[in-house]
Write a structure and sequence with these properties.
The chain is 18% helix and 32% strand. It is an alpha+beta fold. The protein has one domain. Strands 1, 2, 5, 6, 7, 8, 9 and 10 form an eight-stranded antiparallel sheet that branches. It is globular. The model is unreliable at 14-45 (pLDDT under 50).
Length: 231
């Protein structure tokens, strides 16, 4: 018997992809992007929505959105409705913080939060890589689409999830290709100054996620995140 879950290919937001693409073209690969930990889930029998678990990571400087703030913004009571699954509830919710090291040794903050439901998983992350959306749109993937969200520049793109299968008897894990994650990278300001928030959604099966749900979440969640500039 095995327990299957899916995770998007983590640690490689639009800014990081841009740097990685440049490194690849130059013929130099400085390292490997890691897979994050798989978040635990409560059983579906538990009818009480999850609360945000405390992050064990070091506190980020004040100008960055904290994992707690991201998790609080994402883990809202109407998230199942926004996803189009009103009968579900959050089964797990957590935030984490850390630093991502890019090619050349530059470090940028990478706080994020995850909320898992029975059908969908949702991730909200913040990026401070000083790469404008208009530039990042060239690197995320070949089918990316430039969009506008609440007057802010944005790019919609796809990513592939990684299916992780755990053997409940032997404790071994194996990985393989999963389904599609849809992501919306949005500038924190209308001026597109380089900081951005990203919302990603993916399903626990191989069915493509709903883009309309992604936009609904972005329009409701992003204005509540510290660092978002209206207008």
């Amino acid at each position: 018997m095995s327990d299957d879950s899916v995770e998007p290919e983590r640690g490689m937001g639009a800014g990081a992809q841009a740097v990685a693409a440049v490194v690849l073209v130059g013929g130099v690969v400085g390292g490997m992007w890691g897979l994050g930990e798989v978040l635990p889930k409560t059983t579906s029998q538990d009818s009480k929505p999850a609360t945000c678990s405390a992050s064990t990571d070091k506190t980020l400087p004040a100008r960055y959105a904290s994992p707690k703030a991201l998790c609080t913004a994402l883990n809202r009571a109407d998230l199942p409705v926004l996803l189009g699954t009103p009968d579900e509830h959050a089964e797990s919710a957590s935030g984490s913080a850390g630093w991502m090291t890019l090619a050349g040794g530059t470090k940028i903050a990478s706080p994020e939060a995850d909320v898992d439901l029975e059908t969908y998983s949702v991730r909200l992350s913040a990026s401070y890589d000083d790469i404008p959306i208009t530039e990042a749109a060239r690197y995320v993937d070949s089918t990316s689409q430039v969009k506008t969200v609440l007057g802010h520049p944005a790019v919609l793109y796809s990513d592939r999830t990684i299916a992780i299968s755990f053997s409940l008897g032997g404790g071994k894990a194996s990985t393989g290709p999963g389904g599609i994650a849809r992501s919306l990278l949005v500038s924190t300001s209308a001026k597109d100054g380089g900081d951005s928030f990203e919302i990603s959604i993916w399903r626990q099966d191989d069915v493509p996620p709903d883009d309309e749900a992604l936009f609904r979440i972005a329009e409701e969640v992003l204005p509540t995140v510290p660092g978002w500039t209206a207008g």
